[in-house]
Specification:
By secondary structure, the protein is of the alpha/beta class. The protein has a single domain, classed as Rossmann fold (3-Layer(aba) Sandwich). 44% of the residues lie in helices and 11% in strands. It contains 7 helices and 4 strands. It has helices spanning 13-28, 51-59, 75-78, 87-94, 100-103, 131-154, 157-167, and strands at residues 2-7, 34-39, 81-84, 106-108. It has a 4-stranded parallel β-sheet with strand order 2-1-3-4, with helices on both faces. Helix 1 (13-28) links the parallel strand 1 (2-7) and strand 2. Helix 1 packs across helix 6 and helix 2 crosses helix 6. The protein is globular, with a radius of gyration of 15 Å.
């Protein structure tokens, strides 16, 4: 399985989610899952993650190896699951879908958070904000990634996605 995390510029949220997910998958012994990240915009192509994203991530034990790239329709071919950070990211990625099967791969990371039954929260974009915004972002990402890793381990990812669709009335 290949998971792609996606945010706007691919320097804050999606590389953080990628790093957290890689780390937690390894801890869980789920070595058959690969992870990459991308952004919906081309602002930072080829750049490393934001310095505050790296600093907070490294302080929590995460490593960063990717550079920013832009999500394209071709990424649907390699990704089995596209985890977006907010509703705007979801709209932008779904607009690139060529088939209903592509659209079905797109889900907000917050769908895997423990409080998702109360409504899927967006992972707020910390770019341009203080260090505190990066702390909050990592807290949200870690909670949701823990839920995702548990769903991967017990085979319930598709049920979580279906529950998210049902709460939205089946609309994508």
């Amino acid at each position: 399985m290949h998971i792609m995390t996606v945010c706007l510029g691919n320097i804050c949220r999606s590389p953080a989610a990628e790093s957290v997910l890689v780390h937690k998958l390894k801890e869980a012994g789920l070595d058959d899952v690969t992870v990459s990240s991308a952004g919906t915009a081309d602002y930072h192509i080829g750049k490393r993650p934001h310095e505050l994203s790296i600093a907070e991530g490294e302080s929590r034990g995460y490593a960063f190896s990717s550079t920013a790239l832009q999500f394209t329709a071709d990424h649907f071919e390699e990704a089995d699951l596209v985890l977006v950070m907010d509703g705007s990211n979801a709209d932008n990625v779904r607009a690139l879908a060529r088939r209903p099967e592509d659209e079905a791969k797109v889900v907000r990371l917050g769908a895997f958070a423990p409080d998702a039954a109360d409504g899927v929260r967006d992972v707020a974009d910390p770019w341009g904000h203080s260090r505190e915004a990066y702390l909050t972002m990592y807290d949200q990402v870690e909670e949701a990634v823990d839920g995702l890793v548990a769903a991967l381990a017990d085979g319930t990812v598709s049920q979580v996605i279906a529950a998210t669709d049902n709460r939205r009335g089946g609309q994508r």
